[in-house]
Structure formats: C-alpha cells, structure tokens
Amino acid sequence: MKNFVFTLILLAFVGTSTASQDSDFLIAREAFQSGNAKRLDESAARLKRHVLWPYVDYYQQRMLLRTADTAAIRYFIARYDGALVADRMRSDWLKVLGKNQQWSLFDEEYPLLVNKDTELLCYYYHRQLNHKDISVLPDIRALWLTPTSLPDSCAPVFQSLIHGGQLTADDIWKRIRLALEEGQTSVATHINRYLSGNETLNSADLNNAAKNPLRYLESLKTIRTRSDREIALFALLRLLRNDTNPTYVQWLKIKNQLTASDRSYFLSRLGYRAAMRHDPRALDWFSEAQNSTQLYPPSDLVLGWQVRAALRVGNWDEVLRTINRMSLTEQQVDTWRYWKARALLVKGHTLDANTILMPLSDEHSFYGQLAREELGTMLTIADKTYRVSNAEVAAMERNPGIQRALAFSRMNLRTEAMREWSWTIRNFSDAELLAAAEVARRQGLYDRAINTANRTVAQHDFSLRFLSPHREMLRKVLQQHELDEAWVYGLIRQESRFIADIKSHAGAAGLMQLMPATAEWVAKQLGIPNFRQSLVVDVNTNLRLGTYYLKHVLGTLDNQPLLASAAYNAGPGRARRWRDNFLPLEGAIYAETIPFNETRDYVKKVLKNSMYYAKVLDHRNEPTLKQRLGVVRAAK
Q1: Residue-by-residue DSSP string for 311-372
Q2: Cα–Cα distance between 451 and 114 in angstroms, integer?
Q3: pTM for the complete prediction?
Q4: Which residues are catalytic?
Q5: Per residue, what are the HEC states of 37-92?
Q6: Residue 380 scores a pLDDT above 90
Q7: Does 574 score more than 70 pLDDT?
C-alpha cells in the first residue's frame, strides 16, 4: 500500500513538473516571438532538461544570428545535426548570407539544406547564373510564370534574364496575363516595370476595369495597343466570373479588334467558365477556340473542364481527344487515366483500356477503386497487412523527434507539432511509419495516425489508415437515424480526421464540422435545452447534431449518399443545381463535374473512405462503389 501511495505521489509530482516546464516553454516561445531576449534567457535557464530544449536553444541563437560568427552557427547546426531546428537555422542563416552577398559561405551551405523555399531558390539561381550555368534557365522561366508575388531575391534573377534576352516582352506580357487571370492586379502592375517604351500596361485603365468591368467594356471604343487588348480581356474575364451572357454580348462587340490568338484564348476561358456552370454551349466554345487560325494553347485546367463538359453529354470521342491534348504529366493523373480507359471501352478498345485500368486498380484512390470494378475485381485490404509489435512502438516512442512533436501537441501547438512530426517521419520505412502511426493513435492524435499510415508504400495497416474512434457512441446515434456506419465514418474522416475540438476558418467546429447556424437549427429540432455553441466540440453532442443533419440532407436528396455528401460540404441547393436538367447522370460523372474543387475532392474521398471502412469494420454485403454512387436523376 505504501508503494502504491508513493507511486501516486511521484506521478503527481512528475505531472506538475511537466506542466510547469511546459508553461516555461510557452513563455520562452512568446519571448522569442516578441524579441524579448532577457525574458527568453530567464525561461531558458529553467528548461535545460525539457524535451523541447533544442527549440529554446534555437530561439536564443536565432536572436543573435545577424551578429554571430560562422563557427557559432555551424556549432549549433552540428549539435542538432539531422533535427528540424538545425535545418531551420541553416535556412535562416542562408537568407542572411544571400542578402549580404556572402556567396562563398552560401555556396557551401545551400546544398546541405533540406527545406528550400522560393527566397533561397532565387539566391541559388542568382549564383548559378553568375557561374554561367544555363541549366537553371528552364526552372527560372517556370518560376517566372507565377501569377502571384515572389520574394525580392527573385528580382535580380529575372532582371538578368531580361537584360540577356532570355525573357522577352512577350514573356512579360504572358505573366501579366496570368496575374490578371487570378485577379492579381497589383502583381500585374509590379511586373509592368519590366516593360520599356510606350508598350506598358495602362494603370488607370486597369483600375477602371477592375472596379467596374461592364462599365469599362461599354465605354471601350477602340483597341490599339497590347495594353488595350490585355485590359479588355481582363475585363471580360472579370465579368465572366459572375455571368456568361452579359460577357458574351460584350465579347461580340470587340472580338474583331483582337488577334486570332487572343480570340482563341478568350473562347477557351469562356468554355471553361461555361463548363463549370454546366452550360450546354461550353463544347461549342471550346471547339471555336480550337478552330482559330492561331490557337492559344489551353492550360491543363481548361482542358480538364473540356473533358468534364464532354462527360456530361456523353461525347466519348471528345473525352479521348481532349485528354490526349493534355500535358504528359497531367495525363498521368488518375482522373484522366480512368476516363481515358472508359472512353476506350466505349469505342471497343478493351485491350488498350485494360492496359490503363490494371495498374490504376492497384492504387488506393477513388479511381483506383472504380478501375478495380471495371475489371470485375472487388476491393480487398488483407494483402500486405503489417501489424507493428509493442517493441516497435516502444522504440518509436523514444525517438527524439516524435517526443518533440508529442510535446508540442500536449501544449496545443498544432502547427509546430505537425512540422516536427512531418520532418521526423520523412524518410521512415513502412514499418517505422506504422509504428509512428500507432504511437499517434495511442496518444489520441488521430490526424497524425491517419496521415502517417497513408504514407506507406508496400506494407499497410488499413485499420490505422481508417481509424474508427468513438464507435460505441456513434453506433447509438446511427441506430436512431438508420445511417450507414461506413459512410458516416468516411465523412467524419474527411471532415476532421477525428480531431474533436478543431475549428475551420469558416467557423465549422467539431468532428462533423458543423457551422454555428446549422448546429443551432439542429439543436432546436432535437430539443436540446440551454444549447450553446461551445457544446459543438463535445464528441457526443457533435455526433448527435451532425448525424441528424446528415440524415435530414439525405432524405431531401433522393436518399443518395453521393448527393448528400456534396450537400454536406457545399449546401443542398448547390447539390441539386449540379444535376443535369433533362437527363440522368452516372454518379461518377456527377462527382467529377462538381464545379467546386474542394467539394469535388471531398465527395470522391468520402465515398472512397466508405468502401474501406466497410472492409475495416467488417460489414457484410456492402454495395460496390458504383452502386454507392448510383445514378443521379435529372432535375426536371
């Protein structure tokens, strides 16, 4: 009995000590962020034995970086060789070296850096150009065609290429157009400084077009310069975001003043926006863009929506032709491999289709599952299952990087925890990944467990990839609503990775990511007394509210999980509008032609998850993925 009491006292002391040190660490971190060196040093003196001491050491050394000598910095990096703090210090140091043009040291240290960002990449390009290394020119040109702003370190690199003629005026205008496509008018104005002479972007006209594109186009009489053309196209695209028809009217007024290439460019964008709106005119506009005498090469993004428009109307010849026009890299995306195979099957080229479907069927993706079913094979998860031993888990618990990540998680510093965890597991074997995933599961870090188990290549544990926490609690509410357990788990996994207190930027909260208005409405329907928003992160309350709402949505959308999944993410009204007006749609085509990138990805992952959960949870007589997707009836 005495030993038992002593053990309890010891555990309480250790817990109090850990909490106290964690508090000191948070003080040290805040002192570093605010630049308070004195307070940082005071906290550091109490943290020598803390698991996060390397970060405290980093904080102290980082504040002295600009005045520290080379030996001190290298000593720090060597002391924590292989750790994230060492790579962070090297990155910070390299930025100081690049800014100060200390190129000899920069050249020595840059190859040793793991996490390279764009600022450092541009310093590296600067050095290579100085060494007359032209092998970096394609990479610099690719970076140039970035529609968003870039670090100041990139300016000398681009200036060098412009002076040398490797970046021409057409290249400058191409980047201006890309920036304007994204609505980045300030970036376009910044890039404008690289142009010379009279052929520069008219900033006043650009501002007017940005403020009121319709008024600008209505007042536009004559298009004379490159600036006029680009701003007119910008105004058309800006107007096109809201509605097709008014834009098309303005287009007809000015199209003859534009070049054939510009006409091809706009028509492809018109087809793209129309395809996203499921407008039946989309394919005609895509076709008109292709028939221009000087075809403006469409991007893979535009071609993707040309394929989707063709899928909506069952034009399999167009599906095949358009996929073949994509870049070789884009053609290897699982989406387009699957639909190319489907088009080949329709055309009777079964052998060619199966050549695509067979390797695709080995991939653990939405289209990998559909490929299996096209080949007549059902989903299985027993092959290559690897169960980690307790000894492997214990060894992983002793890994310093894992310990640091767990300490960050304990203090609710999720960003730091994720960075440390990702760094630590980056070169793990499959067995090590699964051991780390099991550590995370035991600690209740379900998102880390799932994401880590997802990384395995040859050996898998699908019970870790598809965790099922809170199962008894969930079963009780599922029985009330007669909902499919595998589908609900698939949805929760995608919504929150089972993080109970997570909140999105939009305000959704809890396991099932309920928006405040939705939670309040459901609480009224359920008659929950004294409901308040803080209850949404309670697991039981969240599951009660979320499953009730999911059942409600399912009932209003033909009891189809596909439509209900889309509605859960984007709203029931949109899920209804995405149906075809007159013809039924194959479920997979409905899913692929959802115009919101987030919702399209979400729906496919939820339905894919459902299939794996049915296997992990040992459900019997579960439907195939195609059966789960079903056929979506016409809106009218």
Answers
A1: HHHT-HHHHHHHHHHS-HHHHTSHHHHHHHHHHHHHTT-HHHHHHHHHHHTTSSSHHHHHHH
A2: 21
A3: 0.93
A4: 495
A5: HHHHHHHHCCCCCCCCHHHHHHHHHHHCCCCCCHHHHHHHHHHCCCCHHHHHHHHH
A6: no
A7: yes
